[in-house]
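Lab notebook, bench 4. Still working through the backlog of constructs that have no structural model yet. Next entry is a single chain of 329 residues. Request: give me the structure tokens for it.
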Amino acid sequence: MARIVQFNSYGGSDVLSLDEVEVPPPGAGEVRLAVEAIGLNRAEVMFRNGAYLQDAEFPSRLGYEAAGTIAALGEGVEGWAVGDRVSLVPPLDIARWGTYGEVANVPADHLVRHPEQLSSIEAAAVWMQYMTAYGALIEQAKLGPDDHLIVTAASSSVGLAAIQIAHQVGATVIATTRTGAKRDALTALGADHVIATAEESLSDRVAAITGGRGARVVFDPVGGPSFEPLTAAMAEGGILLIYGALSPDPTPFPLFAVLGKMLTIRGYLYSEVVRDADAFARAKTFMLEGLTSGVLAPKIARTFPLEQIRDAHDFLESNEQVGKIVVTV
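Model written out:
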């Protein structure tokens, strides 16, 4: 028996329960992970609320990320041994390989030997954020040293990862946040420019920063009414990558900006990189080099023990955090 977080209906954080569960042995191609730390993601809140790309089958597990020690090997697993310390690149099923709990059976081909200097807490905070930002910015947008990048919701873990990845390739980062409350924190964490969108004109500030050209790349998890000012701030031939749907409001299509500037608006999911073996290998190499050198360094906003999983979800939904929330086991 192991303590596992489950939920039996959609709803708020109060639907999460920590239950004693008989966990089966790992299947073919899987390992059993003795979990030490779990990285939280907005997708898990959406899944819990019934607003995600995948439906739950109750009782349901959840969770994408974890770090810990291999406790058992499933049939056919090679290259790994019991006792190896590893972290998990998020698999493609949030429930089947749910990581919230003391143990988790996970696919062996999604494991990584992270740099030794990373703690379990740091290692659990790596792969979703950096894989998401890498795939969009490097694989899709081909971000480079001459580019200006607008990062919205910049204080999120993915937003901070985007800032670091942009710096790794020499791009200039324009971070946006709703008010000026997080301006100093974002500047300290590497943003070259910070725009508080509720207090100043996004397009005017971006024009001033870019010499009137606009930003070639926009990285946005929000959607909604912000699409129009974002496209107004973009350069000709620019690309806007939307990787989330945090706004509850409809997302207008900015037809004249898209036509006039010949813009690309593209939906993006981290799974694009995970499904492509070559891109997956490039992503891991890029990130391990950055993590080893220290150019990539996850920012931990706060940790919670497993017993406080509801509080951890509430904090995630508060939008007060700067960086990643991690649950320890």
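Notes after review: The two ends are 15 Å apart (CA to CA). The first helix runs from residue 42 to 49. Flag for follow-up if needed.
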